[in-house]
Write a structure and sequence with these properties.
By secondary structure, the protein is mostly helical. The chain folds into two domains: about 70 residues, no CATH class; about 35 residues. The chain is built from four helices and no strands. The chain is flat and about 55 Å long. The model has no long low-confidence stretch (mean pLDDT about 80).
């Protein structure tokens, strides 16, 4: 159960990171990999750095959530599924908006 929540937190962290800085991941990993011979090593390093940073942020979120003691455990036990559904319903229109925006941008650029 805890591993599922950690993975879910990591997924939300990735979503919010992508929504706030959409070009951070492609520029730091993809563009670095295309830079040349040492670029592949640096891109691998940046990718591992992103993964470790995401894990560290999830760990920090869990530590902060544990400060509430029994109240945090109570909300964690009974609110986890409801919160996941709530956030999923909130992110559905955002995901649809981003998909539509991507398709419109691709049409304007002549890709589609």
């Amino acid at each position: 159960m805890d591993m599922d929540r950690d993975v879910l937190l990591g997924i939300w962290l990735g979503w919010f990171g992508w929504l706030s800085f959409p070009y951070l991941f492609p520029q730091s990993v993809g563009a670095t990999a295309l830079a040349g011979g040492s670029g592949l090593a640096m891109a691998s390093f940046f990718l591992l750095l992103f993964i470790f940073t995401g894990g560290f942020v999830v760990l920090m979120l869990r530590i902060v959530a544990s400060w509430g003691g029994p109240f945090s455990r109570l909300f964690g036990k009974f609110g986890g599924e409801v919160f996941a559904q709530f956030v999923g319903w909130i992110l559905t229109p955002i995901a649809l908006w981003m998909a539509l925006s991507t398709v419109i941008s691709a049409i304007e650029l002549g890709v589609l």
